[in-house]
Amino acid sequence: MADSGNTGLTRIIKAAGFSWQGIKAAFAHEAAFRQEVALAVVLIPLAVWLSKTATQMALMISSILLVMLVEIINSAIEAAIDRHGGEHHVLSGRAKDMGSAAVMIAFVYLLVIWGGILWDNYNKWLQ
Fold it and tell me: Which of the residues 30, 36, 71, 87 is marked catalytic?
């Protein structure tokens, strides 16, 4: 990419604008991302309510954000592959499957974090 001459604060502001465009594109074109945003709208307040320490809250919220982050990366991979060509290629399928696997692993991570914290905080109710 050619040097645009943007440095310092100008570069940061433009980069933030491009990032916001990416978030809007993910929301507009990816149903999975919209579902994860809806899940975040529910889970983030629950994390604030159910956590007992700032560290627990940070872990719970960051696990939600990780799922959204990985979904955006997966969507970017899929968009780049779809742009390259519509014909089926084993490497294209593998790349898409790996992106999907990354999203699944992020969800498992979320479940481990939430499960561990909820167990630590509330397992006495189960006894």
Answer: 71
Q: What is the largest CA-CA distance in the chain?
A: 64
Could you give the CA distance from residue 6 to residue 94 in angstroms, rounded to a whole number?
37
| Residue 111, token pair as written in the block | 């479940």
Q: Assess contact for 110 and 66: CB atoms under 8 A.
A: yes
For the chain, domains (ranges, CATH) are: 31-126 (1.10.287.3610)
Cα–Cα distance between 61 and 99 in angstroms, integer?
A: 22
Distance CA 78, CA 74 (A): 6
**pLDDT tier, 127 (very low <50, low <70, confident <90, very high otherwise):** low
3-state helix, strand, coil in the chain (%, to 5): 85, 0, 15
71 classed as catalytic: yes
Mean local confidence (pLDDT), 37-66: 98
